[in-house]
Amino acid sequence: MLTFTLCRQVQTWGMVEAAPKPVNRGKNSPIQFFLTVPLPDKEGETEKWEVYASNKAKQQVKGRKLTKGDSIHAVLYKHTWTVDLHDGSESIHTRYNLATIIEVEKHDAGVPAKRHTVNAPTS
Questions:
Q1: Whole domain around residue 6: which residue ranges?
Q2: How many helices (H) and strands (E) does the chain have?
Q3: Cα separation of 39 and 74, whole Å?
Q4: pLDDT tens digits for 25-59?
Q5: How far is CA 114 from CA 109, 110, 111, 119, 120, in A?
Q6: Into how many domains does the chain fold?
Q7: What CATH number should be reported for the domain holding residue 54?
Q8: Which terminus of the chain has a smaller tally of CB atoms within 10 A, N or C?
Q9: Do 54 and 6 contact (CB within 8 A), yes or no?
Q10: Are 62 and 54 in contact (CB under 8 A)?
Q11: Among 15, 72, 76, 74, which residue's Cα sits nearest to residue 46?
């Protein structure tokens, strides 16, 4: 049995763990990415959230060109539900849907790599 238990709005800062990718090949497919978020009650610890963006939020993600290492301040909808497993136990699932991006701090990739060509004597 599937039971929806909670849907609430969350505002947080987090770091994009990998570049956002479409969930499937369809034109209207949502974009998925992982966000590393600091835990407020545990100093120095983080949690990895799987975030989905569709419609307007998807356009924001594309427009901001999010990449790995970017920090974002965002509003998300946190959906939590419970699933009964075959052995009688319960499993709690959580999904985050992006509502809007407030701010982006782009990851400074540093100086681009330069190729150095050394001409070695041929004799």
A1: 2-105
A2: 1, 6
A3: 15
A4: 888 899 999 999 998 888 889 999 999 999 999 99
A5: 14, 12, 9, 16, 19
A6: 1
A7: 2.40.50.140
A8: C
A9: no
A10: no
A11: 15
